[in-house]
Amino acid sequence: MGFSLMRNQKFMPTIKHLLIISIAINAGLLLKLLHHEHEWAGLPGPDTNPKNEVRLVKDVLRKAKPATDQFINLDHGDPTMYEVYWKQMGDKTTLVLSGWQSISYFSDTKNHCWFLEPGFANAVTRLHNLVGNAQTRNYHIVVGTGSTQLFQAALYALSPSNAPEPMSIVSAAPFYSSYPLIIDCLKSGLYKWKGDASKFNKDDPYIELVTSPNNPDGSIRQAVVNGSGGILVHDLAYYWPQYTPISFQANHDIMLFTVSKCTGHAGIRIGWALVKDKEVAKKMTKFIEISSIGVSKDSQLRAAKILDVIADTYEHTEKFDKATLFFHYVYNEMAKRWRQLRSAVSKGQTFSLLDFPVEKCNFSGQRFGTQPAFAWLKCEKSIDDCEKFLKKHKILTRSGTHFGSSEKYVRISLISHKEEYDEFIRRLSLLSSMNSPHE
Amino acid sequence: MGFSLMRNQKFMPTIKHLLIISIAINAGLLLKLLHHEHEWAGLPGPDTNPKNEVRLVKDVLRKAKPATDQFINLDHGDPTMYEVYWKQMGDKTTLVLSGWQSISYFSDTKNHCWFLEPGFANAVTRLHNLVGNAQTRNYHIVVGTGSTQLFQAALYALSPSNAPEPMSIVSAAPFYSSYPLIIDCLKSGLYKWKGDASKFNKDDPYIELVTSPNNPDGSIRQAVVNGSGGILVHDLAYYWPQYTPISFQANHDIMLFTVSKCTGHAGIRIGWALVKDKEVAKKMTKFIEISSIGVSKDSQLRAAKILDVIADTYEHTEKFDKATLFFHYVYNEMAKRWRQLRSAVSKGQTFSLLDFPVEKCNFSGQRFGTQPAFAWLKCEKSIDDCEKFLKKHKILTRSGTHFGSSEKYVRISLISHKEEYDEFIRRLSLLSSMNSPHE
């Protein structure tokens, strides 16, 4: 009815009417624009909706929470602890990869490491310069599928191809449990695992692997053999300020690093080597060329983005909340976990842990003792097989025997999901305070 | 002067003035909104602006165009030909990766291949089912850092760890030039390169590598040794309908594939193996665990997206232009390049090429002869060293000697950028029609 009435009325717009209409259109367009700006603030993708973001953070936490009767697997050093930080960073490290990217094998034909993405090389240099943990000037960067591949590349590059006997490879016990497996996997005629460096006969040529802070026990290491024919490879995967004070700028001949333990992105499979000698860097490159025709470009691009955002949180502080300072955030989390762990262990006489000397960190200015990514836990009293004992109580760890040490020890990953870690601490506290634990 | 005049004038806005201002604001807001809609049509990133897209396509082409006095490098099989197709697909294969992805080492703890992304496994199965080139039912999928790593994983899995002598590895000449390099790289005690399969003594146990279509010569291959102690590994990197008729569904014990030659994404470094025997698949997985603690998740996610889009172009035809059917598009490009190549070679007596039998392709329904990714070119007449001859004319190729064959032959990549290919054809035509080429 109202409609037909309006149709029959003669409506003659005045300038005043037109003005009102125009202002109304303005308001409408402005609202739509504001809505657009709001969408533009984020990037499209699974994590752009703030509502989804919250849901996803919850998912991560929920996924990790083990029931009290479930096994907790702390055998591997899976760095899932880091997920919460990167979720909080939202879309700042989101990477958009177009379908036409990563076609060619080549990343930089002018570099002897032709599969090294220049952006990744820049990000690595920038981060080392920020943290001060390793020299990069006059070093050659070689990228690898994790530091595992680079470690093999170094052995290949350093072992003579025509020697009558395979090169001896040693590392001081307790050593990284994968060293013997990787080295002897193919029964190479170039090199051979010879075990504990402290028991090595110095007359033969050898390569000594120096892991510092050490996996499994977190100790700060230097070469132990000191023979004349020795070559050193330094695995510095854990030489970052969340784990240990950065007390000097490392400048060894070959230094290995990995994204896995620095940023927590283990699934990216990216590591890098800083190599002084150009010919060694070239031979390492050759090994990676032969064994996998280079290294994933996608992973290098992602790693570059992530390392750059870490540097940004320090160098472009105006754009970031202070709580997002990466190394500070993770340092605090590690410190908290170590407090919880030491408190649980001190509840009784069942377990013991190493103490680490306190040093000043040149990066943060703070004084602290190493707070490693793994605990090297000793079972005391009558418990002979520590791994077996903990397994009975549904905590999976790795026995000291895998590291060239005793079964009184286990290595326990401390960098898993928070919920998993809390449940581990709860169980360990109970075991620790038992009067006479039976194996 | 004009400014002071205006300042002294009294400006009293009428409703008419206000209307004009309001309409002007309307127009401004509308323009800004339209600009927003324009941006929104694509995804953010370097390739979202249609103007940029065009520029980037041009860049690819321009980048590839060699000057007439420049070297053309056709030594490697770098599949840059594929860039144009993926650029044309715009954002359909764009992948957004969030900063919190790829943290854990694990992709699927229920699968024996624990680093295999389920989405990638699904995409592989889906594509094989679409194309019909290989059975997937009752096969185990193992993912690798390219098929190069999987090939080594297969050798590790199939060679006994306690045999008195290393396992013999053979392949019929001309064989893939990297086989001897990869196999003997570490002087393994598990296996050893024994060269041309057709000259192999049948009494020893051995592994025969069957590459079909073959790299370098494109021939369709079957095992040649036929000994009782033989194990076969089939490298089917080129068994895709752009290169050869899909005449049967392959169901060999171990079949290797790679994204590089299927979709052209060589820089992704992703390959996969279809393995019948569960224990062999497990041992292959073990090798990849030891040598690189799994395979890049980012690359697997990208590969999954790309393989799925290829299947989509066939299975969701309503969403795609017919010109985007992936295998048809690339088939046509390969057919064109082979016509150009044969036409250039037929201009004289300088060169010759193999002929390939015509067969029906069960995938496309078409009848055609293999049109390999490489040309296996023979220099005729007095030209003894074909690589050297072409190098003098600024065409870099790989000599037959690397493939266990004669220096009369070279392998030439046919899957580089169009501009590079056209320039190669131009130069080859000139050489071909020379009356008496001198080496």
From TrEMBL, chains A, B:
Ranges that cross the membrane = none
Cofactor(s) for this UniProt protein: pyridoxal 5'-phosphate
Q: Name one Pfam family in it.
A: Alliinase_C
Which SUPFAM superfamilies does UniProt cross-reference here?
A: PLP-dependent transferases (SSF53383)
KW Transmembrane helix (keyword) present: no
Q: What InterPro entries does UniProt report for this protein, alphabetically?
A: Alliinase_C, Alliinase_N_sf, Ethylene_sulfur-biosynth, PyrdxlP-dep_Trfase, PyrdxlP-dep_Trfase_major, PyrdxlP-dep_Trfase_small
- Domain spans labelled Alliinase C-terminal: 72-429
Q: Which UniProt keywords apply?
A: Aminotransferase, Pyridoxal phosphate, Transferase
Q: Which family does it belong to?
A: Belongs to the alliinase family.
Protein name as it appears in the record = Alliinase C-terminal domain-containing protein
Please give the organism: Solanum tuberosum
